[in-house]
Amino acid sequence: MSLNAEQRQALALIAGRPGGCTKGRLLADGFTTDMLVDLVHEGLATAQRGTLRAGGRTIGVERYRITDAGRKALEE
């Protein structure tokens, strides 16, 4: 698969963090939900829902992690 510049940047950011990135972080960096969904549908990343405790509150988060296919696509 040929990645566009935005997809490449998002995958590089996700790959650079051992635990992946939250959706909030990726959206704050200017990536769109549609683009993230495309990465998941193409098998380049995974999305997993979970919870996080912050400031005494529990909030829902969605975390993205790169797949082996995503790492290969970055190498191309």
In short:
Helix 1 (5-15) crosses helix 4 (68-75). The mean pLDDT is 94.
Describe it.
Helix content is 45%, strand content 29%. The protein is built from four helices and three strands, in the order H-E-H-H-E-E-H. It is elongated and about 45 Å long.
SSE topology string: HEHHEEH
**Average pLDDT number:** 94
Q: Approximately how much beta-strand content do the residues carry?
A: 25-35%
Biggest sheet architecture: 3 strands, antiparallel
Alpha plus pi helix count: 4
Name its key features.
45% helix, 4 helices, alpha+beta, single chain, 76 residues, elongated
Question: What's the SSE blueprint?
Answer:
Elements: H1 5-15, E1 21-22, H2 23-28, H3 33-41, E2 45-54, E3 57-66, H4 68-75
Antiparallel strand pairs: 1-3, 2-3
Helix pairs in contact: 1-4
